[in-house]
Predict the 3D structure of the following.
Amino acid sequence: MNDNIVDVDNWMKFEEELVELNAFHLNEGVRLEAIERAQAGENEDFYVIALDERNNDKKYWFHFSFWDSEDDEGEKILVYDGYTTDE
């Protein structure tokens, strides 16, 4: 797969939602897993599941997608699409 994915394209939206959820401590682990899965050739749409032990083991499904950029570099763009919870 492509090694050009270095971060989540809209990372600020992702971080803002984590702050609203009082779950910012999940940031690094979720972002790294999303990047690794995209680079490994994961499906174009996938979820990273995170268990928040600081918040009564609440479970989050963070949705990501990636696609080819419009330039000629062959780069992939990884985008955070939103989340769902177990509530």
